[in-house]
Amino acid sequence: MEKRITIFQRIIPHYRTGFFKKFYGKYADTKILYGQPYADESLQNAGNLSANYFIKCKNYYFDVKGKIFVSGIWSKLKEIRPEIVISVFNVGNLNIYILILLKRFFKWKVILWSFGYDPETGFHPDRKFTDRVRLYLSQKADAVIFTGKRKTGSF
After folding, report:
1. Following CA atoms 79, 80, 85, 86 in sequence, which dihedral angle do they give, to the nearest 10 degrees?
2. 3-state secondary structure labels for all residues of 114-125
3. 36-70 pLDDT, tens per residue?
4. CA angle, corner 132, sides to 129 and 133, nearest 5?
5. 5-146 CATH
6. Residue 19, Cβ neighbours under 10 Å: how many?
7. Adjacent-strand bridge partners of 84
């Protein structure tokens, strides 16, 4: 039996569409929710997103840089009734906090997806508030997927 998976991304840039199309090809019950970019942002949504699995919702931005936001995904989640929600993972994505609070009620698993941390500045939850929040959210999620570029010769 196939799982109902919903992926939430703040926006869908062109370089991610191939991945989502392949994912949908393997898991046909997948829906991908996304919103509009922040007003001053140069990165935009890809064009020609299939209505079969891409669903546009409204993003609401709260700070001057567009880093803190919540999205109008909740009626869609209620309609779709996913078993698994995979969300873009950054501490300014207020949807994550709500997803984690509601996961027992709606019986969905929450998977957070991110690049991990900035290798230049490191990850220091003992010193940086945002790193402490990332660690806390990582521990509350059912799973976390970190992606990144591996340095040659290291693991």
Report:
1. -110
2. ECCCCCCCCCCC
3. 999 989 999 999 999 999 999 999 999 888 999 99
4. 90
5. 3.40.50
6. 10
7. 5, 109
